[in-house]
Sequence to fold (101 residues):
Amino acid sequence: MLTLLNLLQLVLYIALLALLGQGVLYVLAGPRRDQNFFYRLLQVVGKPFTWPVRRITPRQVSDAQVPIVTFLLLLVLYAVVTFERADLCISAGLVGQQGCR
Fold:
């Protein structure tokens, strides 16, 4: 179970960093961001996470706001996984062991 939580935390961490980088480039690159190679690369990395959020959000949420909503949802999921991982490590007495650092 600990390995699964570590893997899930890693996947969420990568997605959060991709969305954060996309947000930074959104501000820095301005209107020419669609021509920026790194912005498009971060869009590709974040697409498996933004696509389902676009499907579940109402039409009133614009496409420009979907990455922000995705980031916030992933941040909450990351916190939940982190707390569950910590609880598992404490309850199993594995604090300080290899997978619980």
The chain is about 75% helix and 0% strand. The longest helix spans residues 2-29.
